[in-house]
Amino acid sequence: MPRKVRLGIMGLGTVGSGLVELIKKNARLIENKSDVKLEIVRALVLHKNKPRPLPPEQVTTNPNDLFEDKTIDLLVEVIGGIHPAKEYIVQAFDSGKDVVTANKAVLATHGDEIFNAASRNQKQIGFEASVCGGIPILRAISSGLIGNRVDELYGILNGTSNFVLTTMQEERVPFSDALAMAQSKGLAEADPTLDVNGMDAAHKLMILAELTFQTKMRFDDVIVEGIENLQPIDFETAESLGYVIRPTAVARRMEDRLDLRVHPCFVPKNHPLATVRNEFNAVIIRGDAIGEMVFHGKGAGSLPTASAVLSDIVEIARNPNSTPLWNPTRTIQSAPVELASRFYLRFPIYDRPGMIGMISTCLGAHGISITDAIARLTCTETNQGNVMIVIHSAPETEVRKALAEIQESGALNADPLSIRILEN
Ligand SMILES: NC(=O)c1ccc[n+]([C@@H]2O[C@H](COP(=O)([O-])OP(=O)(O)OC[C@H]3O[C@@H](n4cnc5c(N)ncnc54)[C@H](OP(=O)(O)O)[C@@H]3O)[C@@H](O)[C@H]2O)c1
Q1: CA 77 – ligand 1 centroid, Å
Q2: pTM of this prediction?
Q3: Which of 60, 94, 188, 204 could lock onto 192 through a cystine, CB 3.0 to 4.6 A?
C-alpha cells in the first residue's frame, strides 16, 4: 500500500498553482517512484473570487479550515512575506502538521522560532524551494555532500538581478530599461526592491550558510550591496577588460569566522559564473573531497519551484522521523572579517584639470595602486564625466577610506562606485 499524504496548501499564487499543476500531472509518476500518494485536501487564499486550479469547495479564506482539519498531514506555506506566514507556520506545527515552505524571508528572519516550533512538536520542516527554486541545493549540502568539509560556497542566487545585469551587459541598456524588461517577462515582482537591493539573495545566502556551516547567524552580519547604481559604462569597461558583471553571493569560512556577502562582481569571462545568464541561478561549492562543484538551473518560476516543494513533501513522507537538516546550537562568529580584494572603481567627476591625478594620489596615500593604467575619462556636454580605475588587491577598509576622502574633496558629482573583482 502506498503511503498517503494529505496536503493543505497555504497560497495559490505562482508557486501554489504550480504545485497543484505538478501534482495533477505527475502524481502517478511520483507514486510509482516513491510509493507516496499525494492528495490535496484544501487551499488557503486571500481573495475568494479569483480563478483557481482547484474546485471552489476546496478553496477557503479561513486558515482555521486547514489547521483544524485533522485529516491534513502536511501544510505547504507559499503565501510569502513574513506576517502572517510565520504565525501560520508555527500554528501548523502546533496543530500537529509537518510544513514545507518556499519562504526565504521568513526563515532568514524568524528561523529560530520556526525550528523551535517544529522540534517542540516533533514535526518536520522542508525548505528546499526557499533557495534557488528548482535547484536541489539544500539536499545536496545536507545529504549528497555530507562527507565533505565545505569552506566556501558562492554563486548567483537571485534570478531577477541576474536577468537585469545580463541584459545591461548584452543590450547596453540602462538599469531602469533592463528592470522593465524583467517585469514584462514576469521575472520581477511589481515591487522588485528586495531583488535589486540584494536582500533576497542575502536571505538565501543566510539559509545556505547556516546549513553548510551548521551555525546561527545574525542577518545584520551579511554585507549587502545592490545593483541599482550600475550604469552602461560599467559594463562597457568590464567587457573591455575581459569581464562580465554578475550579482554574486559568497559564504566563506575564515578560521573561526565567516565572511558573508552579497554584491555585484566583475567575473572573468571564462569563469563558470560568467556563463550563468538571465534568470538562471548557480551555486559553486568547494568541498575537501569533491573539489569545486557547480549547480546550475532555474532559480524561480512556477514549476521549477513547485518541483522543489514536491521533493520536500515526498522526502518528509518517506522519512518522517529523520533528524532536522539544521542544528542551530553551534555558533561561529560571522563578523567582522577584514578582506582584501581587487576593485573596479568609478568616480563621477566634474571635468576639471588634475582630477585623475588627485584620485590616484589619494588612492596611493592609502597604499592602493592602480593596475595596468586602465583609466578612462568620458565627458558629456554638462561638463561631467567618469573616471574608471582598476586597482591591485587592497584591504577593503582602505578602499572605503580613500573613496570617502575623494568624495569629501568635492570633485565628484555623485557617489563613487566600487565593484569587487572575482579572481579566477
Ligand atoms: N515565484 C517564484 O518563482 C518563487 C521562487 C522561489 C520561492 N518563492 C517563494 O514562494 C512564496 C510564494 O511566492 P509566489 O510567487 O507564489 O507568491 P504569489 O504569486 O504572490 O502568491 C501568494 C499566494 O498567497 C496568497 N496569500 C497572500 N497573503 C495571504 C494571506 N494573508 N492569507 C492567505 N493567503 C494569502 C495569495 O492569495 P490570492 O491569490 O487570493 O491573492 C496568493 O494565492 C514566497 O515566499 C516566495 O518568496 C517564489
Answers
A1: 8
A2: 0.92
A3: 188
Q: What angle do CA 36, 88, 106 make, to 5 degrees?
A: 95
- The whole-angstrom separation of Cα 22 and Cα 34 is 15
CA of 102 to the centre of ligand 1 (A): 9
CA distance 381 to 168: 24
Closest CA to 163 of 171, 267, 331, 3: 171
Phi-psi region of 83 (alpha: psi -120 to 50; beta: other; left: phi over 0): beta
Mind listing the pLDDT tens digit for each residue in 78-115? 999 999 999 999 999 999 999 999 999 999 889 889 99
Q: Which residues are catalytic?
A: 204
Q: Calculate how far, in angstroms, residue 16's C-alpha sits from the geometric centre of ligand 1.
A: 7
Instruction: Say yes or no: CB of residue 305 within 6 Å of ligand 1.
Output: yes
- State how far the Cα of 42 lies from the Cα of 56, in Å rounded to an integer: 10
91 lines ligand 1 (CB under 6 A): no
The owner of cell 541576474 is: 162
Cα–Cα distance between 24 and 412 in angstroms, integer?
59
Q: Quick count: other Cβ atoms within 10 Å of Cβ 180?
A: 15
Given CA atoms 393, 398, 400, 401 in this order, what sign does their dihedral have? negative
More confident residue, 191 or 66: 66
